[in-house]
Amino acid sequence: MTRSRSRNTILFAGFTLLLLVCFMADLFIGSVHIAIGDLLSIIFSGKSEQPEWITILWDFRFPRAMTAVFAGISLSLAGLQMQTVFRNPLAGPYVLGISSGASLGVALLVMGAVMFLPQREFHFQTWGVIAAAWIGSGAVMFLLLLVSLRIKDIMTILILGILFGSITIAIVSILQYFTHEALLKTFIVWTLGSLGNVTRGQLPVLAGTLSAGVLLSLVCVKILNTLLLGENYARSMGVGVTTGRILLFISTSILAGTITAFCGPIGFIGIAVPHIGRLVWKTADHRVLIPAVMILGAIVLLISDMISQLPGSDRVLPINSVTALLGIPVVVWIVVRNRRFANIS
Amino acid sequence: MRQGRENIIDLHRLEFGFRKGRSRGHSLAGPVSTTAFGGELIAVMGRNGSGKSTLLRTISGLMKPLQGEIQIFNSPLAEYSRKQLARIMGFVSTEVVRVPGLRVSDLVALGRYPHTNWFGKLSSSDHEVVERALDLTSLQALRDRDLEELSDGERQRAMIARTLAQDTRILILDEPTAFLDLSHRYAIIDLLRNLALEHGKTILYSTHDLQIALQQSDKIWLIHEQTILEGAPEDMVLSGQLRDALRQTDSGTEIEMDLQTGEFAVKRMLHHNISLSSRSDELRMWTNKALERNGFKVVENKEASIHVLVETRDGHPKWTIEKNDKRIELNSIYDLSLYLRTIV
Asked: Which of A212, A233, B196, B319, by CA, is between 20 and 30 Å from B187?
């Protein structure tokens, strides 16, 4: 036991260091080349020969890197929670239909508004999109909470979550069919995801919701551990399963809903990172896994962001494609390694 | 340290079954009233679908009774909070739990959760209880193994160890010996027996294994025709209740219980008479079994037209079969069966 504890300490120390390195590296990478020495002098003394570099660093790269950290933490933690609650290795932050709910909200705002105001040009408003996505994912979560108050069977809840998602996607498709090309593009760009739309002023909002989600998750750490054995065992160990589930759904919605609202849907991080965490830390204990996937998630999304910047060119890839390209091999590996899917239910 | 007649679980006119929507539900049995006393090992038996699991889940508080009341330590079950209940009653279900990365010692430590703070931190006394549970189930050697790497028997032992770490006076186990081979079945039941006898735990377990239930339980609760029949296993054999309840009729095959041995056997229609003579009781008994399986009834010499003689020559048994003055000698019961099928 002490051996595994000291192993954990080393792992946490090592990965925290890696996180710091990745964060610095992410600040370093961008279309404008700023030498490391200049970068450090801006950070530590606040001065630079080129004043615009200060703007580039503090108004663009720093919020972007922080957003990557927050999003990585949120999505990975949300994914871990959902995999445990649904006892399904392929569950992720979006199984509850949160991203499709958010898409519907954004689609209604961006394209739906035009159906009623056909001639007027619609201006892309950041806060408007964020609010629409939030309301959309919140509505889906609310429906699911109502369902889980009445329905005890977790598989039924999962299926209903997927069906809610499908309905919203259908509605979004109808909206897409009837909309203008320009607006369609606005929506498509949102679905590709971006870490760069968050301003420095919005970071505290992200930090606040993230803390609330993490706090809820920590409160539920015993529930998560007992849920590993299934609902009946959890109940027989004195755990209120329905209450726990609702707290975890709320936590997941806050975490994934907020990130989706600010950055668009970012796929596969939430599914892949919890598995990497279990593999590296060799445990199923959420008291270790929660901090572990938070650190790993931040690292993975920082790396994804660096790749999406395509160092050496001034083009930028959509972050959602990069996370898919990085995450899907991990998911494939999970599926191949874990062939006994029969026991999931 | 067996407690005397301390009432641990009381069923008062209990009716249990499935609730469907708002209707009264589908009742499996009841109303029944009975008691489990301190330190008793009780086997819950009954045919498939008779409600063994439902009864155990209802007593565990995982399902609500349709009617009537359950009392635990003379207080209604409904008045216990889930947490209080977790400290007096442990539960092992039939569900096969596979959690990648969960070590045996971690699984057992989960059993301490009803006794720990919100973060689940184990005190040194909690650790001692976990160690004791690992000792009792002989799992010390496997403590660092991943749950996924265990055999069925080891996993079942680990699940029981987790319940022991929960440190409850009552243990409820749904088919703890399912999927296990004979020696592991006996090992599990021996463990339960020991826990009841030495540690005064009251243990309810469901099983289809009549042999084990007959040998190793203090009492049988037999769910039959919507009620629970109870008694010491021997009483239930002598009264014929076990035989009547377990005799299969709806599946087409009839099985009969041998009141001497407590064994059940498929009842067969025996079409042909045969005689059997042997000096060795062992050879006679096993040959007899094979003959009956092949539809032959063993009768007196003069009533039969086919005769079998078993004798040992040069240390090997030989079967001589005689019909219409034709004699054939065979080396095994299998050859004998093959031959018998050709002549009838």
From this structure: A233
